[in-house]
Design brief:
The protein has 87 residues and is mainly α. Helix content is 55%, strand content 0%. Helix 1 packs antiparallel against helix 2. The protein is flat, with a radius of gyration of 15 Å. The protein starts with 6 loop residues before the first helix and ends in a 6-residue tail after the last helix.
Length: 87
């Protein structure tokens, strides 16, 4: 899976969040960036998708393929062991 852990890709992802937030027009400006570090600090994923380069149907197919692969869903188990809470 591709990782989005380098500073360059994190920065690009933030720029894309800002662009999408403005395009939608139904969110408070700056909300996505204010939540970015909270959402992405956990760094535990069962699957990662680059929605900047993949079309929605490609993302859906990758998710379905992951589900059908019978791969173990481990991210939530790992987060639970770390006692990560969601508010």
């Amino acid at each position: 899976m591709d990782s989005a852990n380098t500073e360059g890709s994190r920065s690009a992802a933030q720029e894309e969040l800002i662009r999408r937030e403005k395009l939608r027009g139904d969110r408070e400006s700056g909300l996505a960036i204010s939540q970015y570090d909270i959402v992405y600090c956990l760094n535990e994923y069962d699957i990662e998708l680059n929605t900047e380069t993949l079309r929605p149907n490609e993302c859906a197919n990758l998710i379905l393929n992951f589900i059908r692969s019978n791969s173990e869903y481990s991210a939530f188990k790992k987060l639970n062991k770390r006692s990560v809470g969601v508010s």
